[in-house]
């Protein structure tokens, strides 16, 4: 969806609009930040509830991007300008998050924003493989199943797994 893995695409689209704006990157970034603030809308690629003041994943990704001179740098410039303007508009620092950094770098690689969600899906698939490997080393699936089966009473019709009576 657009709230999780879709934010990579949404951030890149926003950065492309800033890059292409006739008034220039800084003015366009300011307008975007102020508009989102006025409309009370979140800005794709910004904010992270666990990592404050800065998302270390994003910081590392941005450092990798800046270290590659073959990048044109427009997306990096746009995210930096937007970050400064977001902080100014909100009166506090709001970190670039990992999806913002990924959208920036994929933009630098000239990946069309419409394909970026696919890269996010690929990364999720790699994470699932890691979970499979972990489950093979330290099986927890049966424990979790039994815990849920005991803690959450079956409330449907028919022969459910959990014979506990509904609370209430």
From TrEMBL:
Keywords in alphabetical order: Lyase
Molecular function per GO: citrate synthase activity; lyase activity
Pfam families reported in the protein's UniProt record: Citrate_synt
Gene3D superfamilies xref list: Cytochrome P450-Terp, domain 2 (1.10.230.10)
UniProt xrefs under SUPFAM superfamilies: Citrate synthase
UniProt keyword NAD, yes or no: no
InterPro entries the UniProt entry points to: Citrate_synth-like_sm_a-sub (IPR016143), Citrate_synthase (IPR002020), Citrate_synthase_sf (IPR036969)
Lineage of the organism: Bacteria, Pseudomonadati, Pseudomonadota, Betaproteobacteria, Burkholderiales
One GO BP annotation of this record: tricarboxylic acid cycle
Full protein name: citrate synthase (unknown stereospecificity)
Tree of life domain: Bacteria
